[in-house]
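Can't attach files on this board, so I'm pasting raw text. These are the components:
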Amino acid sequence: MAFLLTCPNCGDRSVYEFRFGGELTQRPKPDSSSNDWTSYFYDRRNAAGTQKEWWYHKFGCRKWIVAARNTITNEVSETAWPDLG
Amino acid sequence: MLQLFRKERMWEKRPLKDRYDVVIIGAGVHGLSTAYYLGKLGVTNVAVLDKGYIGGGGSARTTAIIRANYLTSQGVLFFRESLKLYEGLAKELDFNIMFSQLGRLDLGHTDSSIFGLRQRAEINQLLGVDSRMVGPKEIKELVPAIDLREGKTLPIIGALHHPPGGVVRHDAVVWGYGRGAARQGAEIHPFTEVTAITQENGRVTGVETPDGRIEADTVLSATAGWSSTIAKMLDLELPIVTHPLQAFVTEPLKPFMRTSISSANLHVYVYQTDRGEVVVGGGVDPYPTYSQRSTLQTLESLAGHALEMFPFLGRAKVLRQWAGLCDMTPDYAPVMGRVDGLDGFLITAGWGTWGFKAAPVAGRSIAELIATGKTPDLIEPFGLDRFRKGKLVNERAAAPAAAIH
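---
Top answer:
Structure tokens for the assembled complex are below.
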């Protein structure tokens, strides 16, 4: 199902202008165990419900954004610039 | 003659018991084929539960293509066995599964795609799968309607021909396995949603449903696109992301092609059914979702790419379009078998876009694992622990491999 994403820079745009960048995950510390790194690389919550995820505005401002989307209804409740700490 | 008039029921509705040897979550083609082969191994105290009607998830939405012309030795051996089981399945189940062995062409449009197809031809032949490279002349003989004009962005320069590939009536496979399983004693319980999985000291002990708690020695999740929602009940994360795959079908046309055709470069595959309808499907959608609604954008891109091969289809009307959920793994190979640290729980998932064609061998292998406790060699490479061991399979000959990574 198609939907709109609100790019903080460009406004409401079709999802087909964006590239999906995966669900938001926490990168382990460099000295974390190999098990933690494997989980980071491969394991996904793949939530049926709201999840935070990366999107790249490929055919727009070419910025990465973070959206909260319900994966069942595809309603996007929030979009924001990523918190790069 | 009685069979002709459907006097006999396919399976009986029976009351839900509070204990089974094996509970299978998901009454699709995988769950039911597992129940069927379990019965053949003498394990008959089995319940197959589904939150919806039987065969209503991925099994209802597959484009039903059968083939074994994969790239990795693990994949080719596995799907070769599945194709063999499909060839004998109508007889085995005493049920017409309407297998049309159309043959299959995987088109190459660039030097690099021809290189990939040649590699598959070599590996296929080495492992006894009938595949070989063909040039434009043979492609034209097999599919006279195809547009082979030169000068296009992606001209057709060669193809991998796989004669035993084909198409099966998907519902018939579900029903055949369901009837076969029920005849051996397994119970099928549609509209019985599993709401929780119970465990004690690292051992799964059963499931909870709105109709009550069920104890089981073994619980198998065969829920494909919804596998992560079952895993969540056990605080487990899987290397799976659920993407939809969309397809559409046209109104019936006069027969104009027999061989089914796929193109990785064009992200599209096309075949004409026995009824004359043209089925067009593609790679998975570029973002994950559990929504099974289709999109105009994908219809446009699928149709556009199909027209590159068959321009005259531009006047055909689209009958319907649909989406099915695909549980994609990072290496385009399934995840089958035990889960470390969780006794009594098994998973058959990661069926992506290759689940229907694998159903017979997958069900038989998982049934063997449940009945004997030993992992059959054929599915050994597909264990969940391969990600921890760094032994990924990388099946790049899967339909959407070119599309999402």
